[in-house]
Structure formats: C-alpha cells, structure tokens
Amino acid sequence: MAVSYKRLWKILIDKDMKKSDLEREAHLTHYSLSKLAKGQDVSTDVLYKICSALDCDVNDIMEFVDDKAERYNKEIK
What we know:
single chain; mainly alpha; 434 Repressor (Amino-terminal Domain)
C-alpha cells in the first residue's frame, strides 16, 4: 500500500492556499513538505500539525492506495 496526499492538495486549492502557506501555518519544515509532495511517508506529528492548521481530520488529507494501481496511473501519464 502507498499513501496518497491528493486530498490535501485539493483542500489547499479549495482554501486558496499555497504549499508555502501550509508550511507556515502548520509550522512544517520544507523537508516535510517535500516528502508530502513526493507521496512519501511522514510522521504522525506532521499529519497532526496539518490537520490542526486546516481544521480537518487525517482522512480528509490522505488515503491509502494500491501500489500497483498507483504505478499504473503514473505510467499512463
């Protein structure tokens, strides 16, 4: 299983926020934000900070996806 943060990026669009705004509001490091952008694992502390800053639940910002389906979708693009 892989993690997808597409929901997070959609929330940022809906709130008219940039990644740098989230970095500042949630007190994230640039490294953590970079890991999110690459779909890599981050600590629960990072997820908590994001949820607190955006007033949402962890299910609102991420989901688990099948690795095979995710790779297939990337190959098509």
